[in-house]
Amino acid sequence: MIKSSSTKRTLTFFIIALIFFFGIGCHKDTEQEKVKKIIVGVQTAAEKKDIKKIITRLSKNYKDPQGYDYDTIKGMLLGYFFRHQKIHVYITNLDITVQDSAARALFQAVLSGGNKVESVGDILPERLGMYSFEVSLHKEPDEWKVTSAKWDQVGAGEERGP
Q: How far is CA 8 from the centre of its chain?
């Protein structure tokens, strides 16, 4: 039996601390957080030129308004990665909405591509563009997958690929 009041307080504090820490450790991501992880994961994979990781985020049923499907997106990525040794992606204004098994992510991204930095002139990217993206996702059995994406270059009147 615990007799001292300081021991009781210490034990009570310890139990409350355990409950608090276990509660934080059991945090489960919201659907919005899961979708954000997909978008950020694609961003990171693009900078690493990891096509496999990007493609695993796409639904096999991917189809977008530009007429691209799963295979053409894969080919487009291969071409872009082949042309540019270095790729940087900066995402801003990320807005995610989730409704049941559908999600939409709106954001802007600055994409730049270039070659290895061998001189001062190589610091500036060969290609730089800012794009507005509208990405549709669907919750498939294993995780959220990108089912469609629409992008427009900011400041340009026509649609272009990144």
A: 48
Neighbour-count burial of 25, counting CB atoms closer than 10 A to its CB (0-12 exposed, 13-18 middle, 19+ buried): exposed
DSSP 120: G
Instruction: Spell out the alpha helix ranges (H) of the chain.
Output: 5-25, 31-47, 51-56, 70-83
Residue 137 tokens read as 């996702």
Per-residue pLDDT band for 162 (boundaries 50, 70, 90) equals low
Task: Note the pTM of the prediction, 2 decimals.
Answer: 0.72
**pLDDT tens digits for 51-75?**
999 999 999 999 999 999 999 999 9
CA distances for 50 relative to 57, 75, 99, angstroms: 12, 13, 30
Assigned fold of 29-153: Nuclear Transport Factor 2; Chain: A, (3.10.450)
